[in-house]
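Data deposition worksheet. Section B asks for the primary sequence of the deposited chain exactly as it was used as input, without tags or linkers unless they were present during the calculation. Section C holds the resulting structure in token form. Section D is free text for depositor observations; keep each observation to a single sentence. Incomplete worksheets are returned to the depositor.
Section A, Depositor: J.P.
Section B:
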Amino acid sequence: MEWTLLTKEDYVTTNWSGGTTTQLAIAPERAVYADRDFLWRFSSAGVELEHSDFTPLPDYNRLIATLKGGLDMKVGEGERFSLVPYQVYSFDGGVPVESWGQCTDFNLMLRKGQCEGALQALTLAAGAALSWTAPVSAPQSFQNRTLAIYCGEGEVNLPEDGKTVKAGQFLLCRQAEDKPIRLESAQGAQLMMAVIYTR
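Section C:
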């Protein structure tokens, strides 16, 4: 598989009402987040305010996890709840969301009706190795497959693909094969793994 390694030099950082957000990758590649016509988007936001409101994105489903710090959320009329680091939560981007707490988060946005996907936290202990398989299978109508790996801590190797990803780096395969990924880590790693299916 053809993986692209993205680092801080490739990311795009902008301001939002609660702090800053860093775009890691977007599809199509030349899409502009502000135009709200993208297919999917990975980002990591620094939440600097103790209380903030999420930007409404009614055309998208969202998946979020925190990488550092704690975050309380209230989605729509639901009860306030807490997210611990690397716990994934999914919600409708069109529903009002309030948050409390300062943190660094990780986001995946998926355009409704045009793509589906999953986000999964994965911990590798020092010296560990495993074969990772996407947690959800491709829907019948979405046959194209994108895989992504974000390293929040440590370092991980993909020996079969000759790739290494370190803390703060992002690996992306836009035309991925449907097969397990071999992961090895000498020092241990905390990862966010993602799969996206499109037509």
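Section D:
The first strand starts at residue 4 and ends at 6.
The radius of gyration is 16 Å.
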